[in-house]
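Chapter summary example.
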Amino acid sequence: MFSSDGKYILTGGADKVINVIDASNGKVLRALAKQDDALLDLRQSRDGKLLAAAYVNADDPSRPAPVVIWDLENQSPRSRILEPGVVFNGGEFLLDGRLLMTSGSEKELKIWSVRP
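The structure predicted for these 116 residues follows.
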């Protein structure tokens, strides 16, 4: 995915690492800490400060894996969202970037506070 300002490409996958790539030259600028699960989806807050990374359990995709909220300035995880029995299938930061909406099924939406 492209960053909210279009300057970077954020990638990740089965290698369990999120890379921040310079969109102008394709060079990897930094890699965020490797996680236990494979990356499923990325969503960036509109101000570009937070990144929600949804992971999938590589051994059993039907089992829950966390959504990690990354602080991109510090390049560190800020919080983890994990609910028993909920497998991530979509989400988005709300306009002010303080809340993250996630969906674990076609009948359920949850809203999480991700900033103080």
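To summarize the output: Residues 8-84 form a domain with the Thrombin, subunit H fold (CATH 2.40.10).
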